[in-house]
Amino acid sequence: MNALPDRRLNAYRPDLAEDALRETVDAPRYTAGTPARVSASVIGLRPRPDLTAGIDTELLFGETVNVLDRAEGWAWIKADFDGYVGYLPEAALTENGKAATHVVAVPRTFAYTGADLRTPPAFPLSLGSRISVVGESETRGTRYFTLEGGQSVVANHCAPTGQPIADDYVSVALRFLETPYLWGGRSGFGIDCSGLVQLAMMMTGQKAPRDSDMQANGLGTAIDRSALRRGDLVFWKGHVAIMEDPETIVHANGHTMSVAREGLEAAIERIGWLYEQPTGYRRP
Q1: What share of residues in the chain are helix, strand, coil (percent, to 5)?
Q2: Does residue 10 contact residue 23 with C-beta atoms inside 8 Å?
Q3: Are 125 and 109 within 8 A, CB to CB?
Q4: Taking CA 184 as the corner, what is the angle to CA 183 and CA 186, rounded to the nearest 5 degrees?
């Protein structure tokens, strides 16, 4: 019997599957889904419709998804950016709104209730969030973008969509130093090892799979340890780190519970007690 496709990237259940799987899995119904976008600051994507289930990943404000089913306050979705499948609260989605014009280009910022830093914040935004700008103003020398919902964001915290914020994704990853580690996290408020790789690369116009095993199996090309340089990736079973230079890694890790720098040799020795030696090295 053929193995079923990876449930993280393929939407199928006993009662329903996405149209793309008609020739792959048997289901009583198939669906093309309907488009929507995330209206929450950050929302966890879960393997089942249950708030006690751990999150697989997160979606950011303004990211677009394909909604495959809705039931009892939950939406079963497939993310447009990386194809990840899971459940999130239906209230975190909207079907309305303009296409994004800008992306948040700093690790964290706020949407304010008015075009003034003294007004109360409406909600926080992470790097990578997509926003639709409908106006612009200036207050006491600070320029603000007006969002379609009426909130305001500091203009220099944003960049036009489709425009990389840096040429070097390592420099983006370093902006997250001391950000708390969060299993499944993919934002400036909390992030895991593979989420750091994916989000940093996304902001330089590059695509990376979401999870470390996916990255280890198909991101870039395999290299020898002796060839390691800035931007290369080191993989352990269930973990990935970014080379800042030939001797230093930066990674979101459960040891410091943060994004931190660490010497590669020290990390290999420390991690080896639990997860053995690195499983491979890749150059994106």
Answers
A1: 15, 40, 45
A2: no
A3: yes
A4: 115
Which pairs with CB-CB distance under 8 Å and at least 24 residues apart come from 160-168?
Answer: 160/101, 160/102, 160/103, 161/100, 161/101, 161/102, 161/103, 161/130, 162/205, 164/203, 164/204, 164/205, 165/103, 165/105, 165/203, 165/204, 166/203, 166/204, 167/204, 168/204, 168/230, 168/231
Gap between the Cα atoms of 261 and 253, Å rounded? 10
Question: Three-class SS of residue 118?
Answer: coil
Residue 1 has pLDDT above 70, yes or no: no
Beta partners for residue 12, in sequence order: 17
For residue 143, the SS3 value is strand
Run of H or E residues at 275:
helix 264-275
DSSP classification of residue 20: G
The predicted pLDDT at position 274 comes to: 80
d(CA 70, CA 89): 9
Q: How confident is the model at residue 50 (pLDDT cuts 50, 70, 90)?
A: very high
Q: Which residue has the tokens 């639709």?
A: 132
pLDDT tens track for 271-282? 988 889 999 999
Q: What is the mean pLDDT of the chain?
A: 97
Does the predicted model carry a pTM greater than 0.70?
Answer: yes
Instruction: Give bridge partners of residue 86 from the DSSP assignment.
Output: 77
Q: What is the mean pLDDT of residues 197-218?
A: 97
Separation of alpha carbons 250 and 180, rounded Å: 13
> End-to-end alpha-carbon separation of the chain, Å?
34
Instruction: Give ∠ CA 85-88-148 in degrees, rounded to 5.
Output: 105
Q: 28-47 burial, b for 16+ CB within 10 Å, e for fewer?
A: eebbebeebbbbbbbbbbbe
What is the number of other CB atoms lying within 10 angstroms of the CB of residue 75? 21
